[in-house]
Write a structure and sequence with these properties.
The protein has 15 helices and 13 strands. An eight-stranded mixed β-sheet has the order 4-5-8-1-9-10-11-12. It has a three-stranded antiparallel β-sheet with strand order 3-2-13, with no helix packed on it. The protein has a two-stranded antiparallel sheet with strand order 6-7. It binds zinc ion (ZN).
Length: about 475
């Protein structure tokens, strides 16, 4: 059987977080009462004229800058004609052969994925199919339409077919998502549709350079479903090709529940849309000064931030990736470090127990009830020997549950670690005296029995100190007393 290599290109639609829509002054906001943010322009009523949102162009320039694209002197809008109930104008204002950003790249795990183009367009409204087979177009009793989303600014970011595996596709989207969030152009919430992915995938014999017939896959609503859909589709195509069949160029729909793709429609060609220049809008020609201002105001990008944190704090690339890859987590860690925690210690707590809590509770790091300076306080309490690690975990959990600052929790619960030798000697001697048989077996035993018994004694003394005894001091005292 032949070895196949996947060739994948991704089209990512991202809703821009402007205050108003792309061509009118309607509010751009998710989740409002249906059909409340609408006006003659976004409803396409006769005689209404679109006016381009300057902020959306600025966001597009930021995207271009972050993706190393060039921005042609001018770009233009086209009308993409097709009929669908969620698009009241019967055409979508989009960019076609002269987009605002071209020829960039995004580095993903040390591999450069080319960006063919990133263009601006307006979003459509939303249809909801009700009754009958839930969520299915065919068999629904009726359909509802909400035009709040019609005219919301979108960027479509089209990669070159440089991606070679479902895993790499996920990594690309994850990197792109973090980038778009860092430059403040979108809230990138896949669950609310702010970021949507279509994928093109074909197979070719491994080691060859040609391109096979590609299939477009739609309806992947999470990184996980993107990975699953591409795995499935690569497997399906390999089966067809192995059996001597041919791949049909088409658009397929990912069915999350069934875990498979099925034919949606044969792939439409550009000419199906009768693109023609939008006569109501002038070309977009951002001045060099404007582009320079955008460039100067760019924040630190995730890749640069990862490199900086790894170098400054001496943490692994992996940990730096976790910090920067989770919204708000690196900000939290940096604030803890600013409050006095060493970077590596702060990273250990933030990427460990704290991240666990964030994921489980769905709380954003900025909303945690333990502040970054509270974490710095905890790190200091471990550093000066007041808290052992297990006790510190308890204090952290209490802080995250809103039970007070680490110092307060330690004081209220009497949790401070006991390192005072005079106090601990008594505990160790009492335990040794209470278990003469174990002591004898320990002294005369083989190495593995000794190890086991040693664990037993440590457990006993720890229990006797209610977990507060300093393990290092206890270990030394046990060594002395058990030596006989
Ligand atoms: Zn409007």
């Amino acid at each position: 059987m032949r070895e196949w290599e996947a060739v994948i290109g991704l089209e990512v639609h991202v809703e821009l977080a402007t205050e108003t829509k792309l061509f009118c002054s309607c509010v751009n906001e998710f989740g409002a009462e249906p059909n409340t943010y609408i006006c003659p322009v976004c409803l396409g009523l006769p005689g209404s004229l679109p006016v381009l949102n300057e902020r959306a162009v600025e966001f597009a320039l930021r995207v271009g800058e972050a993706l190393h694209c060039s921005v042609p002197e001018h770009s233009i809008f086209h009308r993409k004609n097709y009929f669908y109930p969620d698009m009241p104008k019967n055409y979508q204002i989009s960019q076609y052969d002269e987009p605002i950003c071209v020829d960039g790249w995004l580095e993903v795990d040390s591999v450069r994925v080319g960006i063919e183009r990133a263009h601006m367009e307006e979003d459509t409204g939303k249809t909801l199919h009700v009754g009958g087979a839930a969520g299915r177009i065919h068999g629904a009793e009726h359909s509802l339409v909400d035009y709040n989303r019609a005219g919301v600014p979108l960027m479509e970011i089209v990669s070159r077919p440089d991606i070679r595996s479902p895993e790499q596709a996920r990594a690309y989207v994850s990197e792109l998502r973090g980038l778009l969030e860092a430059i403040g152009v979108s809230d990138v919430k896949m669950e609310e549709g702010s970021l949507r992915i279509d994928a093109n995938i074909s197979l070719r014999p491994a080691g060859t350079e040609g391109l096979g017939t590609k299939v477009e896959v739609k309806n992947m609503n999470s990184l996980r479903s993107l990975g699953r859909a591409l795995e499935y589709e690569a497997g399906r195509q390999a089966e067809v090709l192995d059996a001597g069949g041919r791949i049909t160029q088409e658009t397929r729909h990912w069915d999350e529940e069934a875990g498979l793709t099925h034919t949606l429609r044969s792939k439409e060609e550009a000419f199906d849309y009768r693109y023609f220049p939008e006569p109501d809008l002038v070309p977009v020609a951002p001045s060099a000064e404007w582009q320079e201002r955008v460039r100067a105001a760019m924040p630190e990008l995730p890749s640069a931030r990862r490199a900086r944190l790894a170098a400054q704090w001496g943490i692994s690339d992996h940990d730096a990736g976790v910090l920067v890859g989770t919204a708000g987590l690196a900000d939290y860690a940096e604030a803890a470090v600013a409050a006095g925690a060493p970077g590596r210690e702060a990273t250990n707590w933030v990427t460990g127990d704290l991240l666990g809590f964030v994921k489980e509770s769905g709380t954003r790091p900025s909303d945690l009830r333990l502040s970054p300076s509270g974490l710095a306080e905890l790190v200091a309490l471990v550093g000066d020997g007041t808290l052992s690690r297990p006790l510190a975990k308890e204090v952290l959990a209490a802080g995250l549950a809103g039970q007070g600052s680490p110092k307060r929790v330690v004081a209220e619960r009497g949790l401070a670690q006991v390192s005072d030798e005079a106090e601990l000697v008594g505990v160790v001697e009492a335990v040794v005296a209470a278990h003469p048989g174990e002591v004898e077996r320990y002294r005369g035993g083989e190495e593995k029995d000794r190890k086991k018994l040693r664990g037993f004694f440590m457990g006993q003394v720890m229990a006797a100190t209610k977990g507060r005894g300093n393990p290092q001091v206890l270990n030394r005292l046990l060594d002395e007393r058990l030596a006989g």
